[in-house]
């Protein structure tokens, strides 16, 4: 009898164990089913930021003294390291080097001097080789930042500068193509900064003592979404909390982020106009009727644009020479971001385009294009003839050819029908 009771107890214990094990497995399975198949993809993953500091001899003059260069570099490192995960710092010349001084990001600038910069081959650098090494390591989850004086290390002989520019185009076209293969858009922000400089400026192989102001460049490269976020977070403007010493900025992407519709553009019905009345269509963009003031010899009216998500530098947007208006009887009077009337409140970051026509020579349709071209400041800040004297403090050797190479890659990557940064068309149904 006791044996039967023991046997029954053993069976009961086994069954109970099986039930609990089954429940345990079911519970774990159920818990797993509460999570998405790929939970990591549901999170916003911050990119890894890699900062590459070019350390050829021509960069030493920026770090011999307490300079704006050090200040800006400190801001850049501190902000990226504080906001992004896995920020890393390297020296770069003809190879990439992670020196011991790069390990402590918080104190890097404090220890930065010509001696600590002596890592790798600092005798000369090839900027196109540098671009190639960096872009090869710039993936969808990476934003790369190059800090360099960006001197093209070639002489102005024949077509060598042209060849160097074409090499730059090819290097960036490869990066754009690889991004598109992964359904991503590629983008670059190129910034010119100025800083005190005490050291040797090189014209070819000839060193000249320079105690003054020299330009250098911060170039951000990566997936457009990540680059745009970094631009906003780092406040990349010439402010004490942004990037001290910033003088110019050029933003360029393989595709635009801005769609033209009544949510991002509209005709203003008051302010910046001398018409007695403008009646917009229901979409707020096209015009149903313009009632002109017959005492005026011209007609002026305006478009308001919300440009928060347009990947374009502010000073580029505000330069009226970057626009083209058709037909020819219309022209752009001014571009401003200082319009203070109520309708500007419709947009987060408004600009106003003031259009004018002389002698009231009307047309039923007005087209405004924001052209995709190299900013005017690039040519003003560039020279390509060796003078063997210290250049202007704002100018860099062959800067235009380098930027032309980068620009050419992005321009060629765009669809043939989509070369402009935007094209605004407004139909006017009736004039009175």
Give a quick set of tags describing it.
432 residues, alpha+beta, four-stranded antiparallel β-sheet, disordered N terminus
Task: Walk me through the structure.
The structure is a single chain. With 432 residues, the chain is an alpha+beta fold. The chain contains eight helices and 18 strands. The chain has helices spanning 2-33, 68-83, 127-136, 160-181, 224-233, 314-317, 376-380, 399-413; strands at 48-54, 88-92, 96-97, 142-148, 186-203, 206-223, 246-253, 265-267, 277-280, 287-291, 298-306, 323-326, 330-336, 350-358, 365-370, 382-383, 396-397, 422-427. A seven-stranded mixed β-sheet has the order 3-2-1-4-6-5-7, with helices on both faces. The chain has a four-stranded antiparallel β-sheet with strand order 8-11-14-13, with no helix packed on it. Strands 12-15-18 form a three-stranded antiparallel β-sheet, with no helix packed on it. The protein is elongated, with a radius of gyration of 29 Å.
**Helical content class:** 25-40%
Tally of helical segments? 8
Q: How would a textbook summarize the main sheet?
A: 7 strands, mixed
Shape: elongated
Radius of gyration: 29 Å
Mean pLDDT: 82
Q: Indicate the structural class.
A: alpha+beta
Order of helices and strands: HEHEEHEHEEHEEEEEHEEEEHEEHE
- Strand order within the widest sheet? 3-2-1-4-6-5-7
Q: Determine the strand fraction and express it as a percent band.
A: 25-35%
Stretches where pLDDT falls below 50 for ≥5 residues?
1-11, 13-43
In whole angstroms, the N-to-C terminal distance is 113 Å
Number of strands: 18
